Amino acid sequence: MSATNTSTRVVIEPVTRVEGHGKVTILLDEANRVTQARLHIVEFRGFERFICGRPYWEMPVAVQRLCGICPVSHHLCAAKAIDKIVGVDQLTPTGEKMRRLMHYGQIFQSHSLHFFHLASPDLLFGFDADPAIRNVVGIIQQHRDLAVQAVLMRKYGQEVIKATAGKKVHGTGAIPGGINKNLSTAERDALLADAPQMLAWARSAVEIAKNYTLENLEKVKDFGSFESTSLSIIRDDGAMDLYNGGLRAVDKDGGTIFDHVPNDRYLDYIAEQVKDWSYMKFPFIRSIGPDDGWYRVGPLARLNTCDFIDTPEAEEARREFKSLTNGRPNHMTMAFHWARMIETLHSIEKIIDLLHDRDLQGTDLVARGQRRREGVGIIEAPRGTLFHHYRVDEHDLVTMCNLIVSTTSNNEPMNRSVRRVAEQYISGRPQVTEPMLNAVEVAIRAYDPCLSCATHALGQMPLEIELIGPDGGLIDRGSKG
Amino acid sequence: MSKPKVATCSLAGCFGCHMSLLDIDERILELVDLIEFHKTPLTDIKRFTARCAVGLVEGGCANEENVEVLRTFRRHCDVLISLGDCATMGGIPALRNFVPLEDCLREAYLAGPSVYNPGGDVPNDIELPLLLDKVRPCHEVVKIDYFLPGCPPSADTIWAALKALLSGEPVELPYQLIKYD
Ligand code: SF4
């Protein structure tokens, strides 16, 4: 693949060990210097259009079919928007707490899945390990205890979802204005029985991620990293709140850009730029503009935006995390993993608190109000801030649907990480090797992108790398395996 | 004797069927003793390098790349299974079949309330595979040997089907395991 007179195009496709389908292209000049590196979302579904004309109460069950990895996030976010349509601003205590329990179950399972099943092979075996073992089967074979822990942590989160939503994937628990079931004492006791073990494992997962970061600090500090704005929703008192809150954005130094923005005003603050080479749009903060207004979302961003965490163990972990950067925002892409495990710990603490709350056995499940024409719901999905916005006509049919999914907000950041790693690992080298390509994927995986979600305008994500020469000709296709 | 190989892919699906496969929970430890995962999003094997006993396909075909991947699966797998409602009949993504594709693109990239698109461009790049006018179920593109309905099929359904296939028994699933959502 020497490319003396031509430029070279490297393609990684499909991107693997991520959720969904994507593709990376890297262009090299005569001296094998990277001139362009892009992550493309190659699928399109058209949800926002074809969902129009359907009755509004279908939204929580229909729109979650965007994504089977975080269906609960879409289920709840749509339900929050539809609550507004049915005129409900405040759920009953049972309604709100059942939904929160479902949500923390989702965060717990999704974060566990990502860390153990998808990302840990890179961390435990190395970015450049043999691809034949660098996967979850390798973990099962060589780190049996960890694999068992991974499987059971994910299972626990799924059981929480089943107990609250009725089904592990694509449940039906949230309905306009509330929830369709409470938690029986039998369900509660079964979940409580396993909770101490889950708490212990979540603690140890934080240790694994923390130690990985600290022991490899020299390597991970700059790996695909850059300074950025962070965005999330936040509780009124500045606590991390994954279910409800106003929007907060902080700049790279931690300074406030906006704060406690009511959900229904999001359009005044956020817009999405269209680029012709990806089905995934590029969100940005309006006041800063399309060029520099991009921002990060997800676990790393949430640890940068929140003032504190309201559960004791996760708060202690957060303080330790912050001390690495002297209290300032952390911009290390690989620190996503550590942040994600802190949230996993937070989620199980929240689950345990909720399970002890008698409101979950309440029978007042649904609130009612005056019908409205429009509703916005915003939630912190495992991968970041998620927006659902609907308008409904007098026949109860949806006339407008706007979705900004979490991974979309990380589009520009992921592209920056891809470019950084391509420059760090590939630029100027005589040959493009599999480990170099995997390094690019490692940076993408840190964001835990859900390319299924991103496909809603709907793309999916296989990863392939192609090398293109200066004349635009395909020189080599660096696929793996 | 080497273990039978299993490949999986997600075409125009949501990954929920793959999640349901992972919902076999502890049985996955048993599964990796029985089979070897070949090309699947769970491993970094990106191209077929060996013949597979079973291929599980999630999602229908929405673009030319889905068609290409599906044909590759047919060529390399002895038994091909449509996993879930999307693969079996198009599922939710096939709702777009009732709307002109152009309208879907216009809503997503031009008309949406948060769209910023002064140039009026709709994504159109050589890197993006051509969209099909309609979303097609897999059996309209290649021969499919088995269909597992459900959105997603339950973990027990997937497990029962795999176990039967791998042990050479007839795949006869009890009524309770055959469900559409
Ligand atoms: S059948 Fe259901 S779970 Fe499976 S890919 Fe389609 S929408 Fe997702």
Protein traits:
heterodimer; A: 481 residues; alpha+beta; Cytochrome-c3 Hydrogenase, chain B; 3 domains; five-stranded mixed beta sheet; four-stranded mixed beta sheet; 14 helices; 16 strands; globular; disordered N terminus; disordered C terminus; B: 181 residues; alpha/beta; Rossmann fold; two-stranded antiparallel sheet; 6 helices; binds iron/sulfur cluster
- Mean model confidence by pLDDT of chain A: 89
CATH topology of chain B: Rossmann fold
Q: Which sequence of strands runs across the widest sheet of chain B?
A: 2-1-3-5-8
Count of the domains of chain B: 1
For this structure, the CATH topology of the largest domain in chain A is Cytochrome-c3 Hydrogenase, chain B
Q: What is the topology?
A:
The complex is a heterodimer of chains A (481) and B (181).
Chain A: E1 8-12, E2 23-28, E3 34-40, H1 47-50, H2 59-62, H3 71-85, H4 93-125, H5 136-142, H6 144-165, E4 174-175, E5 178-179, H7 185-215, H8 217-222, E6 229-234, E7 246-250, E8 256-261, E9 270-273, E10 282-285, E11 295-296, H9 299-305, H10 312-323, H11 336-355, E12 374-381, E13 384-392, E14 398-404, H12 406-409, H13 411-426, H14 434-446, E15 464-468, E16 474-478
Parallel strand pairs in A: 2-15, 6-11
Antiparallel strand pairs in A: 1-2, 1-15, 2-3, 4-5, 6-7, 7-8, 9-10, 12-13, 13-14, 15-16
Helix pairs in contact in A: 4-6, 4-11, 5-6, 6-7, 7-11, 9-11, 10-11, 13-14
Chain B: E1 5-10, H1 16-22, H2 27-34, E2 36-37, E3 52-58, E4 61-63, H3 64-76, E5 77-83, H4 84-89, H5 101-111, E6 115-116, E7 131-136, E8 146-148, H6 155-166
The structure holds iron/sulfur cluster.
